[in-house]
């Protein structure tokens, strides 16, 4: 039921961990800014369970934040039972999940029409860029819809433009697969085919992936405005391109991270639970044990390795990564899961790592199976670099803590994020791309050594300096009444709150 004196905001994230988490953070952020709203996040039943578990860890007034599940049965869409987000799904199944997400529409429509019939001021929708169909629903019902991209500006602009234009399939004179122009980007900014995810490399405009993304992105571009999980000051080029491209207002309301992470001098020592997990997933190691392990290492000495919530690497790559790590002799925390082609939720087999690896590394490394308390690790002063797939949440989490990156983009817009982190920000070195690349242990060792090198005029130092400047900008952006993201959020809230309230 909708209290008549509050603006109702309906949020519709895409069905993936990396989308649900920032949507929830956006909800908290909006509630912090304005008490005159109520929010309902809608999704499939299992994802609502995830959110429920995440919400239960926050002390937020539940009267203002509601969760609503819409009926969804993954088996109806050729997916394994209980597959309601991308966790554990292979590529061929992921496209089924994308297509299956369209099936939420009738129940979403019904839910909205009940709210509208209930009276009060019309609700406003904030939908995922991948759920462009919500914009059509909004138009049919005469209400406003805003699109939220959980990515950054540069990555989102590249992702949208490449899907809609397929520039690598339409090379013009002077362009090659490793030197092509993406409409909307300056001519000097050339892209390479290996920066595109494998299903996009193969897309021809008629395949299932193209049909899904071209339709959903085009629909989202007709919404009333876009919200972006970034900070105005850190992505000048990306924002210029995105704004020119989508042609509707773009509000930068990032970083959507737990506030404790962003306040200076508030680190781990404030106690577990204050930063807290962003997701509803339980880490496979007690955060206290992770912290204890980090406490025993010098400042900035530990490499953290994780490929996000849904990606993994190949068996041969895993072997070379392990060997390179061991030879680098640097301390590391590695979030490890079965390699590509194996059940991601299945048992981990010792033969995927060099013989005797775990015994030999002893105190040098901490292996965490499946899921680690990432925020706590990145906030710890011993963490000196992050080997990441460059998922946007991981990027923002890392930069907010001034931790430089080693990039290994695997999917989605991660290749463009990595490109920007290298070319525009100077805070990243790309180790390799994708799951088919040949990776040698020597490269692993030399990249780790360069990034973690402490010499004053070395590459590592210049990356740390830039990461530290970006970290300052990110944390300043949320300052009350002054920061750019704070002001953008206020502006967005006054735009969406109906005049009649
Ligand atoms: N994450 C985590 N523990 C892990 C792996 C990931 O807490 O072991 C969190 C991470 O902090 C981030 C999210 O999961 O908030 C991953 O989002 P990202 O955009 O980086 O990548 P995606 O999973 O969407 O590919």
TrEMBL record:
UniProt xrefs under InterPro entries: UDP_glucos_trans (IPR002213), UDP_glycos_trans_CS (IPR035595)
UniProt entry keywords in alphabetical sequence: Glycosyltransferase, Transferase
Gene3D superfamilies (alphabetical): Glycogen Phosphorylase B
Thylakoid listed as a keyword: no
Residue ranges of coiled coil: none
Entry's EC annotation: 2.4.1.-
Pfam family of the protein (one): UDPGT
Family according to the record: Belongs to the UDP-glycosyltransferase family.
Designated name of the protein: Glycosyltransferase
Species annotation: Artemisia annua (Sweet wormwood)
